[in-house]
Predict the structure of Homoserine kinase.
Amino acid sequence: MAVFTQVSEDQARALLERLNLGQLTGLRGIQGGIENTNYFLDTTQGHWVLTLFERLTAEQLPFYLELMRHLAAKGIPVPNPQADRHTGAILHSVCGKPAAVVQKLHGASQLLPDAAHCAAVGDMLARMHLAGQDFGLHQPNLRGLPWWNATVPQVLPFMATEAAHLLQAELAHQNTIASSTAYAALPRGPVHADLFRDNVMFEGTALTGFFDFYFAGVDTWLFDLCVALNDWCIHHTDGSHHADLAQAMLHAYQAVRPLTDAEQQLLPDLLRAGALRFWISRLWDYHLPREAALLTPHDPRHFERVLRARITQPLRLK
Ligand SMILES: Nc1ncnc2c1ncn2[C@@H]1O[C@H](COP(=O)(O)OP(=O)(O)O)[C@@H](O)[C@H]1O
Ligand SMILES: N[C@@H](CCOP(=O)(O)O)C(=O)O
């Protein structure tokens, strides 16, 4: 479950009054997610999601919330943070925690996607990258290379020898890639950085929104695409590449924004980077869990398998 902090109906009513969102008709804790406390808020005016941020600080949050507002204003289907009617602020405080209220997206996650779903994600991801180009705030991807370098030494003591060697070798490889000329030439901007199947809503094959922007940051657009390819377009049994799904996502992405030469060159390496990033975070959550977490951590071995598959069968564009 992901209700770390209990919100009472009176607290929800007080917040709704400040946001001018109507009278409370329902307040339900959301079971999914691992990072934050989430509630569905139903009112006489609509349906909303209340998030209390459990790890992110009030200094980090404006980047995420303003990015969502920026993208929504440009027609990208992302939840739009609701403002205080007196101050205009979109970052609120509930139970002493930083909080936001966003629109509830229609639909449901598609956990068994076909090529049409992957194409819809590729298309919207490219549109989102272009729409974010003129976003004014800057915050790096806080789960980028510096975090990998800092975190790998913390998880190594818990690992078996062979896996530890792979982790260290891949980290060294990614440090080399990050200092290459091709890497410096990669286009970059605000990216979602966690666009897994559980962070996208669909009604049938129609994509109704991207959400959970709380790992977003400025990074290469290619990294964002690779994170999505590594979740949407693989065989989840062994982590291997799913050619039809990958082709559908890449084709749709490139129909909006063709990959540059440097991006085509580094696609196999950034697929490895995407796998490494989530292998490290899952190892970290698994071996060094948060005190309050009542959660089953995601399986780190899944991304070890994805990384091995990306190394032994590199995906190259035809
Ligand atoms: N804007 C939204 N519209 C509809 N459902 C949402 C929205 N935001 C969150 N949810 C629901 O809440 C669940 C948990 O949200 P998520 O952002 O993934 O939490 P966490 O940040 O803790 O991982 C999602 O799987 C989804 O069902
Ligand atoms: N997508 C990550 C975990 C991040 O959790 P989320 O619920 O906030 O998407 C993973 O699968 O390791």
